Each structure stands twice: as C-alpha cells, then as structure tokens.
Amino acid sequence: MIDITLEDIRKTAEQNREVRQTPLLTSSTFNELTGAQAWFKTENFQKAGAFKIRGALNKIRSLSPAEKAAGVITYSSGNHAQATALAASLEELSCVVVMPEDVLEIKIRGAKGYGARIEHAGYTTEDRRKRAMELRDEYGYTVIPPYDDPQIITGQATTALEIMNQMEPPDYIISPIGGGGLISGIALATKFINPKTRVIGVETEGADDAKQSFETGRLVRLEKVDTIADGIRSLCVGDLNFEIIQNYVDDIVTVSDDQVIETMKFFFERMKLVVEPTGAVATSALFEHSDRFRGSRVCPVISGGNVGARQFAGMVG
Q1: Are residues 194 and 310 in the same domain?
Q2: pLDDT surpasses 90 at 96
Q3: Are residues 123 and 170 in the same domain?
Q4: Rounded CA Rg of the chain
Q5: What local confidence, expressed as pLDDT, does residue 278 receive?
Q6: Angle (nearest 5°) at CA 208 between 185 and 156
Q7: Which of these, 85, 20, 105, lies nearest to 54 by C-alpha position?
C-alpha cells in the first residue's frame, strides 16, 4: 500500500537542505532537432554527482538511534553507494557499501572519499544484495536499500517537486528506470501537483524489465541485462516501486545503447555537460521517439554525471 503524501515530500525537501536544488537548462539546438521544448533537470550537478543523495539522506535521517549506532550498509553499482556514504558522513555514521566487481573506479573513489568501506560482490544487483544481507546478519548493520523503500522514494520525489517549482507544469516529465526509486518518486509528486503532466519512464533495450512489467501487469524479472547504462542494470524493479509505476506512470519506452552514446555526445559538444550513460537515457527518448514529443513542453531528468574520464572519452571520442 502506498503511504506517501505530498506533505511528506514537501517536509522532506524542507528538512534535507543539504540536498542541492539543481538547475533546469535549455538548448535551442536540441529543441530544433527534436521539435520539443525541453528543460533539462540537471541532477549531474547534485551532491555526489547524482540524484541518489535525495533518498539516501532521507532514509538515514529516518533511522532510530539504535539503527544509526549499528552503522549502515548498502549495495549499489555506484551512485547510491556514493550517496549513502555521503549521507552517513553527514550524520557521522560508519558505512559499508557492496559494489560490483566491474564498478567504475571513479565511483569507488567517490564512496571511499566520503568514508565508506568497500566490499565487492558479483555483477548483478542480486549478487550485491545477497552479500550485503550476509554482512548485515554477521555484523548487525542497518541496510539502506537503493530503491524499494518509502523513505527512499519520498526523497527521490523531491526531484519533481523542484521541477514543478522551477517551471510551469510541463506536458511530460521523462525519467530513466533502474530499480524504480526515481521514477516512482517523480510520478507520485507529479500526479499530486499536476495530474495532467504525463510521466514517461525510459529503459535501454537490453534492460527492459520495467517495460515488460508495465505492459503485462506483473513483475517481470530478467535473467540478465545488457546495457552500457550501469545505473539501470537491475533485473527487476522493486515491489513498492512497481505498485507506484502501475498506478502513476503513463508509459515506458526503450532506447538503444547507440542512442545513449549519441546523447552523451550531444550534451558534451552542444551543452558542455558531462553526463554518464544512465543520465542520458531519458533524453535519448526525445531523440529516438521525437514524433511523440514534438510540440510538447518536456522535462527529461539527467539523473547523474559519474563517469570516468577514460570511459567517457572512449564512448564519445
């Protein structure tokens, strides 16, 4: 059952003032290419380089004194790990993060820089989750889940709250989908404030579990995913996230990895923005499905910018 209100979201935004209100940017070139009027929500400028601090800080501040004293642990491909480490440091808590074996070095450095201890486990979300649960059982840590949690979702919802305060309600807000924390929060806040704004989720073709789940009405779990967008490599969305997606998201589309790279190039060459692959996913839908959005006021979310210089150059060079 969904038990998150607009007042909860507003209260979260008020309490967590360390979270940066990221700007909306525009590009006349982009508008000419796509036929849409776009305002980009630049969460690549957020603290720790992605939107994840919104949920992580909100979750950690909701913990009891005993839960905080136990220290926190999370599992993440990188951005939630860094956000949890930063949030833990703000609250002066010990933090362990379980990351994949192939995690980008920049994301390891980020989490370590905020004081976290790093563990590695496998290549999928489930590999990392299992290891985190083992460490929780052994040491008593408090788990900070990456997306399937009311406090996490409420924190991520402040993204849409800001958008609605920064501009007239757009026709569309477009969000990438990994585990579902960001889009479920965005969808709730958007529909609370302006039900006419349509919320569109975007996945890459090789990681389309949410689209399949949305279309079939049942939670689909993939055996494996194949995408350059490491932030959306979850095998399925969370249970609570799926409930919200079913009730508040208007549609889910897919884009190709090739288009994601082209979008990263556009951001770099025309807007001077460094955007990680997952951060380019939402905007890629405006290129790949331009007919759908032509003539509309749209707000795609650039969810993050945590990409190493060598990896970035290899993709866009």
Answers
A1: yes
A2: yes
A3: no
A4: 18
A5: 97
A6: 15
A7: 20
Query: Which entry of 77, 184, 213, 303 is annotated as an active-site residue?
Result: 303
pTM above 0.85, yes or no: yes
Q: What share of the chain is helix, strand, coil (3-state, %, to 5)?
A: 50, 15, 35
Beta bridge partners of 255: 204
pLDDT at 123: 81
Residue 94 region, left (φ>0) first, then alpha (ψ -120 to 50), else beta?
Answer: beta
Whether 197 and 312 map to the same domain: the answer is yes
Residue 1 has pLDDT above 80, yes or no: no
- At residue 252, does pLDDT exceed 80? yes
Of the candidates 143, 162, 182, which is a domain's last residue? 143
Name residues whose C-beta falls within 8 Å of residue 290's C-beta, 6 or more positions apart in sequence.
33, 34, 35, 36
- 248 three-state secondary structure: helix
* 291 burial via Cβ count (<10 Å: 0-12, 13-18, 19+): exposed
pLDDT of residue 2: 81
Domain that holds residue 135: 53-143
Q: What pLDDT is stored for residue 122 in this prediction?
A: 84
Q: Is 27 a catalytic residue?
A: no
The beta strands (E) that lie in the chain are given as 24-25, 37-38, 40-42, 72-75, 95-99, 117-120, 142-143, 172-176, 198-204, 251-255, 297-302
What is the distance, to the nearest Å, from the Cα of residue 184 to the centroid of all Cα atoms in its chain?
10
Express each pLDDT in 185-241 by its tens digit.
999 999 999 999 999 999 999 999 999 999 999 999 999 999 999 889 888 999 999
- Of the listed 52, 59, 107, 191, which one is catalytic? 52
| 1 found inside a domain | no
Query: Annotated catalytic, 52?
Result: yes
Tokens of 156: 């991520």
User: Tokens 């994840």 sit at which residue?
Assistant: 52
